[in-house]
Design a protein that fits this description.
129 residues; alpha+beta; Lipocalin; 7-stranded antiparallel β-sheet; 2 helices; globular
């Protein structure tokens, strides 16, 4: 019985020792300086985007708190059906851009400009208007 108690105690001590020696990588967290750079931005946008072969694309974008997004697009004056489309995916942001990754893994880049959202190229320089 004493032998069983000693073995159990040694097992518990070994377990706690191993847990204390865990060398896992540090989790990236936002420091207060980084958090201060992320100014609040609207969680939804509506507008009409230019279109080469229609009157415009009526677009609504909704950012959800869980990191997902939904976009609805309706082609105005389109000659073919369907003229409405929905897409979805995940979003992330930095101080200067919003990155939408759709369900196929394709990324699109945006910059908040006041209450508007400006579509950007991945390689567009930051200081360019």
């Amino acid at each position: 019985m004493v032998k069983k108690a000693i073995v159990t105690a040694m097992a518990v001590i070994s377990l706690f020792t191993l847990m204390g020696c865990n060398n896992r990588a540090e989790v990236d967290t936002l420091s207060p300086a980084q958090a201060a750079e992320l100014k609040p931005m609207p969680q939804s946008w509506r507008g009409v985007l230019p279109c080469a072969d229609c009157e415009g694309i009526e677009t609504s974008l909704f950012l959800e708190k869980d990191g997902t997004w939904v976009m609805n697009e309706r082609y105005l004056g389109a000659r073919e059906e369907p003229s409405s489309f929905a897409s979805y995916g995940t979003w992330a942001r930095t101080a200067d851009k919003l990155v939408l990754t759709d369900s196929k893994g394709e990324k699109s880049y945006y910059r908040a400009k006041g209450d508007a959202l400006e579509m950007r190229n991945q390689h567009t320089p930051r200081n360019r208007s």
